[in-house]
Design a protein that fits this description.
Number of domains: 2
Strand order of the largest sheet: 2-9-8-7-6-3-4-5
Oligomer: single chain
Largest sheet: 8 strands, mixed
Strand content: 15-25%
Number of helices: 14
Helix content: 25-40%
Structural class: alpha/beta
Distance between the termini: 24 Å
Shape: globular
CATH class of the largest domain: Alpha Beta
CATH superfamily of the largest domain: Type I PLP-dependent aspartate aminotransferase-like (Major domain)
Order of helices and strands: HEHHEHEHEEHEHEEHEHHHHEEHEEEH
Number of strands: 14
CATH architecture of the largest domain: 3-Layer(aba) Sandwich
CATH topology of the largest domain: Aspartate Aminotransferase, domain 2
Amino acid sequence: MLSSRLPRDLAPNPIGRAIARLRSQGADLVDLTESNPTRVGIAAPEGLLLGTAAIEPRVYEPRPLGLPAARRAVAEHVSRAGRVVPPERVVLTAGTSEAYGHLFKLLCDPGDEVLSPRPSYPLFEHLTRLEGVRAVPYALECHARWELDLDSLQRGVSRRTRAVLLVSPNNPTGSYLTQTELDAVEALCAAHDLALIVDEVFAPYPLAPGAAGPSVLDGDRDVLVFCLGGLSKAVGLPQLKLGWIAAAGPRPAVDRALAGLELICDTYLSVATPVQLAAGRLLAEGAEITARIAERVRGNHAALQRLEERHPAARVLPTEGGWYAVVQIPATRSEEEVVLDLLESERVLVHPGYFYDFSREAFLVVSLLPEPRRFGRGGGAGRGRRGPRARASTGAPQNRPA
């Protein structure tokens, strides 16, 4: 009776069921999956949100691509790194998830394909399926650093391919694209007439000086490019739903794309007026939040590396930016067993690697956002044990998000 775009089984998987049960019992879980900066003690500057809430638009003036002042504010924000983004090439959305949906509507017919990184966002599978589009994975491989497997990307191209998705830095691997990788992907897109969609939401958070990679908006592009961002990560305000698409590339292609996006946006008109009116102030004053988040994730990443020195069986994989870290552990048990064991015995929640579609086990993904004391408590979980306990497998995980 329901659409085939939805998963057949909507029931929670074993990890979700365990979390719900423990929380219903009042357990104090150390959540090392937390991705919401408003819940980890990083408060907005005094008066910033109150000032936003006080904005009272008397007249509704719908602009499908966004209010001009808000588009200018976003263009100025994106341009601070030295690149030039004209306001007329900025499209506002109610978050980056909606931006993906709009772009899939713009570029794809039902059954068409987009190439998406693996491992990466669990959300990609859902976002594509809900638009009737198929996500075809290409590999990221970890050697001295995480690198894009260009052969894998090339093999994924078919007559139904319409776009390549890149995330820089990627979630959860934290790998920025190099200029060489970006140039190679652009050449592939040009050869096959593909659009390039680049998610740069975590770009403001390099974990070390000089770690940040180039932006797709640096310089001129020979293919149609869409660069995604939003308030959620740019200034740590996910409760104010504002995302954006910055278009670049050959002018005729960009003009056609913007005309199509205007029709799509006009159909939904989903971006609230108050957040658009406040966009300039939020992006300017929110820089204080960005700095505090950057300090937090760097500090927690350093703490995680110190823990690794005391626990050589676990390896913190190379990461360059973003809010997450990947820990490789001995593959003596399934990731799901390890996660469930940590929940039951230590009251610590981490994500299994399969949530992000790692090609093999065993990996754990942790957020670098939690308050440092809780992060230290969670990061040291299980350190008194001699090793993983062997017990029967719980079976294949259900409803893998990616």
